[in-house]
Amino acid sequence: MVAKGRGATRGDIPQRFGLAAREMDGDWRDARGDIDGEPPPLRTEVTEEHPKSILTFNKSPDIPFDRSVNAYRGCEHGCVYCFARPTHAYHDLSPGLDFETKLFAKPGAAALLRATLTKPSYQVRPIAIGTNTDPYQPIERRYRISRAVLELMVETRHPICVTTKSDRVLDDIGLLADLAGDRLTAVAISVTTLDSALARILEPRAAHPLRRLKAVAALVQAGVPTYVNIAPVIPAITDHEIEAIAEAAAAAGAKGISAIPMRLPHEVAPLFRDWLEVHYPDRAARVMSIVRQLRGGRDNDPAFFGRMRGLGPWAELLRTRMAIARRRYGFLKGKFDLRCDLFQRPEMDGQMRLL
Fold first, then answer.
1. Which CB contacts under 8 angstroms, 24+ apart, belong to 216-222?
2. Who's near 54: CB < 8 A, 6+ residues apart?
3. Of 43, 93, 272, 332, most Cβ neighbours within 10 A?
4. Helix count (H) and strand count (E) of the chain?
């Protein structure tokens, strides 16, 4: 029995790190068999955590940033395909339903980032938010952590790029417009499908696709460079919508479009296969066959560059279709071009400048 309003169809995902398979517990056990009728809705729980640092650096050659801030762990949007789900396994939590119901918030993120930016050794490069879990998921309305980070970026004139699938980003449109005026920010909004019925089961607590496109238009109107990520592209489920999404992105004024084939690392693969059996049993085998063609005969290919592009004829066709769509609608292709020369090192709270 599927938990209403959630993306994952199961919570009992076998874990790595030598841990035993996680048993279903609490509300999930009740929902699966200890009661009759419709299962009760799963409650979202938020735990506040206070790490010692907030800026994460990477050396991945296939992504256009080398540092990021993640205000939250777990994501209530519940996108079944989310490649970040396996991170919950590090905490002995299920990458399935736990990932979308047992969340972690870092209310001290902006203060930690301020401390990092004050260091004389800090060298400016664009910071990315939304690269792991969504910075504008529903609990942002309560915690305002992403807003606090943007306020610090405005204060210090530090470049930042934002990725989200929520129109809640418009809550901070004034800050983003301020940064955009000095070419210090760009926003990417993910649109996986235009089909509202599919969106409800694929990414159940994310904003409706049309609301995301309206957010693109509003950001563009405010002078914020905004892109649309047609991502992930799911073979035989969403790939037929590429041209329609590109057309809608152009109508909204998006500056560019990109596409990434679906990735299924670690526990995401069995979660997605289970989701297919529940919602698309008639084409489950076909979908996974194309996925394995894309990934060198496996469910997932973690190799740099290959993980973002895919392999084989299907991947080549995707790239050809994207190139045609870019030409047809006049989209730009390239990385965010943000300035790094306006940075003003911040003061620590209560600290006065010497000069």
1. 216/189, 216/249, 216/252, 216/253, 216/254, 217/252, 217/253, 218/170, 218/173, 219/169, 219/170, 219/173, 219/176, 219/187, 219/189, 220/252, 220/253, 220/254, 220/255, 221/253, 222/173, 222/176, 222/177, 222/180
2. 69, 106, 108, 109, 112, 113, 116
3. 272
4. 13, 10
Closest CA to 239 of 273, 201, 177, 286: 286
pTM of the predicted model as reported, rounded to 2 decimal places: 0.88
Q: Which tens digits make up the pLDDT trace of 215-251? A: 999 999 999 999 999 999 999 999 999 999 999 999 9
Spatial separation of the C-alpha atoms in residues 168 and 138, rounded to whole Å: 8
Instruction: Tally Cβ neighbours within 10 Å of residue 39.
Output: 17
Question: All domains of the chain, ordered by start, with CATH?
Answer: 41-329 (3.20.20.70)
Using 50, 70 and 90 to split pLDDT, how confident is the model at 6?
low
